[in-house]
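Hypothesis: this fold can be encoded by more than one sequence.
Test: take the structure tokens below, design a sequence, compare later.
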């Protein structure tokens, strides 16, 4: 089952700010903190089960372990034909440093992802509660790197237009998206996605996507703003966009939980 997730997921691990070497190091230190010595093969097999989405070369894991031994984060003893590893005081310091750098951020991002999933899976609860937190600009950009922002904006836009069959101002849709989460996209990015939803070929002549919305001037005389409507294509693909987004958010959510398990001191 774990291998299936690794094969099928499109998640971009590098977007989460931890290199493969750092992930392996964090995993090894967490395992060795339990007080049990492990050999390289045991650590590799445990890692395959615990860390989703990406296959890691056995050789690369072994090389990382050798590097950890050289820099003093793990001690190495030989038993039979295998080397066994134990965490050192320097390794414990490095683990605590990982906590300082990453724990709070991943806990914050998990709360945002919890809310996003609730919005998609249970849209009827969308105004049930709000997150009592603020999001730094750095964390907002971090969220934007790890999720499919375009799919989320398209989904929320189509869902809101479904609720307003008589049309709705683009600015209203943008405010609705901002109100959904602590996280938000820029207004310029939102309108870029919205215009491409209306006329994808205008912005990319080679695009094979269909128009999902159409718009008219709210007042043809003043032309102050346009009202947007869901077209038949938008109605037809809404469930597909919803399903794809749900799977994408669940993958990100699962990955964040796997990192948080490594950053848990219990």
């Amino acid at each position: 089952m774990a291998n299936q997730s690794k094969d099928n997921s499109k998640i971009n691990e590098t977007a989460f700010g931890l290199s493969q070497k750092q992930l392996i190091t964090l995993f090894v230190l967490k395992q060795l903190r339990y007080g049990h010595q492990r050999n390289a093969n045991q650590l590799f097999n445990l890692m395959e089960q615990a860390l989703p989405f990406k296959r890691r070369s056995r050789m690369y894991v072994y090389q990382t372990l050798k590097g950890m031994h050289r820099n003093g984060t793990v001690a190495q003893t030989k038993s039979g034909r295998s080397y066994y590893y134990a965490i050192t005081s320097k390794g414990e310091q490095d683990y605590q440093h990982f906590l300082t750098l990453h724990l709070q951020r991943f806990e914050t991002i998990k709360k945002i992802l919890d809310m996003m999933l609730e919005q998609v899976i249970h849209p009827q609860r969308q105004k049930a509660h709000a997150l009592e937190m603020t999001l730094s600009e750095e964390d907002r950009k971090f969220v934007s790197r790890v999720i499919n922002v375009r799919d989320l904006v398209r989904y929320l836009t189509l869902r809101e237009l479904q609720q307003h069959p008589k049309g709705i101002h683009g600015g209203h849709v943008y405010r609705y998206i901002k109100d959904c989460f602590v996280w938000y996209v820029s207004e310029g990015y939102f309108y870029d996605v919205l215009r491409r939803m209306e006329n994808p070929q205008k912005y990319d002549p080679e695009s094979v996507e269909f128009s999902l919305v159409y718009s008219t001037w709210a007042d043809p005389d003043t032309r102050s703003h346009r009202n947007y409507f869901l077209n038949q294509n938008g109605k037809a693909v809404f469930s597909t966009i919803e399903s794809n987004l749900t799977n994408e958010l669940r993958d990100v959510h699962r990955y964040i939980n796997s990192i948080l398990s490594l950053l848990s001191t219990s």
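The chain is about 60% helix and 10% strand. The two ends are 26 Å apart (CA to CA).
Hypothesis status: open.
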